[in-house]
Amino acid sequence: MKRITGRLAEDKGKYYAVINLPTVDGKRKTKWHTLNLEAKKGNKKEAQYRLNQILDKYNAGDVHLAETMTHAERERNRLANTKMLDYLDEWLEGHQHDIERETYHQYKRYIDGRIREFFTPLDLTVKDLSGDEINEFYTYLRNAGLKGSTGQRYHGVLHKAFKDAVKRRIIPSNPVDQANRPRKEQFIAAYYNAEEVKQLLELVKDDEIYIPILLAAYYGLRRSEVIGLKWSAIDFTENTLTVRHTVHSTEEGIVAKDRLKTKSSYRTLTLEPFVRGELLKHREKQEQMKKVMRSAYSKEYTDYVCVDALGKLYDPDFVTGHFGQLLKKHNLKKIRFHDLRHSCASVLLAQGVPMKQIQEWLGHSDMSTTANIYSHLDAVTKADTGAAMSKALG
Q: Which of 132, 194, 218, 390 is 20 to 30 A removed from 240 (C-alpha atoms)?
């Protein structure tokens, strides 16, 4: 540890010892000690002697630095010397009311899982953590077979946690910034073309999740948006369908929300004639089931479109699993339920719909997201461009 230094200062006719003290964030602060000496001729030598005595006490450890700290400084010092994993636990618990419940549980799985597994043997404190250990952690994730996109999610959790540590002046800089962010593999979405979508809808029209499949295929709705769709969000007079509710599966169970993740996710789409007719038939079936099942029919989700025969909301995981079973049953090409969203985009692109309109239809936050995901599908535009070049150059 570096020696503590100091200097003499004069204030209002008196000498003071100004001691330079280290802080947990790598900076320094000063503490003034009165020397009980007037700042006049003949006293400076004595003042210097008393300053040296005070410095000797500090450097000998007779004066504990903790005694010179404010409460906030002591707390920062405690956290800087806290085990890294204990800090992450404390950080997450302190932020659980500021983040979505499913986000909290996801972060907790990451921290209690591979982060704890890797960092426990290292036994690092917050101030000792560096980009070197974090890079080793990312290598560990790759060796475990995790994709770069998953590595980026771990990177995001660690970066948020230690960004907060910098903000609170626990550490001077974010060690995650010193690491190399995992590279994400280029994602090529699986999808159905128009004929395959038509075949799928025909084959599953009598299945219990026909309406969720129809909504995902026609409108490119996310699974949470499909199951969260309410009758009150459908205007059969103006023929519009508004996306403004979601349903998620969490460790605590099914969570319904009257809000979406981003502003662009809120969107009003045209209610196409075929979909309109299918929804009206579906609503009539629901009314019939209410009469037949009477008290056994759930009253909790009466405004939701996608409910089972007893009026209960579909579990998102059930929809995903059952969709896969349907494809296998009918010997159809294997795709995920979410790939119906990509299929919607592919059909729109094939029909020459501009990328900007597809962005708005799907509810992407910006154009680059749509372009990055679907650029490989834009065969129509590329064909038109090629034809234009051929025409121009003969």
A: 194
